[in-house]
Design goal:
With 337 residues, the chain is of the alpha+beta class. The protein contains eleven helices and ten strands. A hairpin with a 2-residue loop joins β7 and β8. α1 packs antiparallel against α2 (22-33), α1 (2-17) runs parallel beside α4 (51-83) and α2 (22-33) packs antiparallel against α4.
Length: 337
């Protein structure tokens, strides 16, 4: 019986390995592994053999069956691969580089702004997004009852804790930690209770600057902002300072640039009644009450502060008509920059 099993193994291996078509393979499978095959008949007849011979014959028969089933699977894979159409790929061509992401436009502009002000001698400071009432309002000359404190403008977490409405709070923290002279910018996210539209978001980015030293004047402020705006928008940028009011500066000013979309003629970007000017930031000389709040002597120290919305600066430079485009995750828009 053992000799016959060995002969079946040799015949089955030869037939399965040599099968040149699916029909040949099926015939070999039926002959050696089918329900009526000789090997199957031997396995079914094991019960009629003496116990000692049953063990030897059963072990050898199962070993041969496993071997032939393995060869059958290999032959099926071989014939399937041979039946597929040949590849037309030219493997000598260079591979296609997968698309690679890049930095979002807003963080890119923030980094650029930081580099501009670092070149002007400013350090970069950061602070918490969740801020207390004192650093957000009290130290900035906005007492209880000031309109900016209203829930219609500010997000309150508790009576004395808010989502910071401006990064001026970082300037207050910087003055509390560092004695003058001090030159610092504070970029970061801010939060306002605004209805979302093309020019307003409830979460956006600001960059604010502060310079404190002896004998700092409005001329220093104008020179700094002139250098900054011309480096950011281009050397031909025209700008003007107009009087304005902010509680933490005195005097205060709003800074406009000549609309470079229409050359100052008036258009949909700057508006027909603007005279061709675009507002880009607010600024002024630090109010003495702010210095008193942080322990600076207003008789000795003077300083200027300014602040701008990063999204607004980016909109103006790139001609983006809607703030919401920056955060809509539309790859068609994002890949332009």
């Amino acid at each position: 019986m053992i000799e016959r099993l060995d002969a079946l193994r040799a015949e089955g291996e030869h037939a399965l390995v040599g099968a040149a078509s699916a029909a040949d393979l099926e015939a070999a499978r039926v002959r050696f592994l089918g329900r009526k095959s000789e090997l199957t008949g031997i396995l079914r007849g094991l019960k009629d053999l003496p116990p000692d011979e049953r063990t030897r014959v059963g072990a050898r028969a199962n070993q041969i069956r496993a071997r032939l089933e393995s060869l059958l699977a290999e032959a099926e894979s071989r014939l399937q691969a041979a039946s597929r159409p040949s590849s037309t790929r030219d493997v000598t061509l260079p591979g296609r580089r997968p698309p690679v992401g890049h930095r979002h436009l807003i963080p890119s502009v923030l980094r650029e702004l930081e580099e501009i002000f670092r070149g002007l001698g400013f350090a970069v400071a950061s602070g918490p997004d969740v801020e207390d009432d004192w650093h957000s309002f009290g130290a900035l000359n906005m007492p209880k009852g000031h309109p900016a404190r209203a829930t219609t403008d500010t997000f309150y977490l508790r009576d004395d804790v808010v989502l910071r409405p401006h990064t001026s709070s970082v300037q207050v923290r910087a003055m509390e930690k560092v004695k003058p002279p001090l030159r610092v910018i504070s970029p970061g996210r801010v939060y306002r209770n605004e209805a979302v539209d093309a020019t307003h978001l409830f979460e956006f980015h600001q960059i604010e600057g502060l310079y404190v030293d002896e004998n700092v004047s409005m001329a220093d402020l104008k020179g700094t902002l002139d250098r900054f705006l011309k480096q950011f928008f281009g050397p031909k940028t025209e700008l003007r300072f107009c009087p304005s009011y902010y509680p933490f500066v005195e005097p205060g000013a709003v800074v406009d640039i000549r609309c470079f979309f229409c050359g100052g003629k008036g258009c949909g970007v700057c508006g027909p009644l603007s005279g061709g000017w675009l507002e880009v930031l607010g600024a002024g000389m630090v109010h003495p009450n702010v210095f008193k709040a942080v322990g600076y002597d207003p008789e000795r120290w003077t300083g200027f502060a300014f602040g701008a919305g990063v999204e607004r600066l980016t909109m103006l430079r790139h001609g983006v008509p809607d703030l919401r485009y920056f955060f809509a995750n539309d790859v068609r828009f994002l890949t332009q920059f």
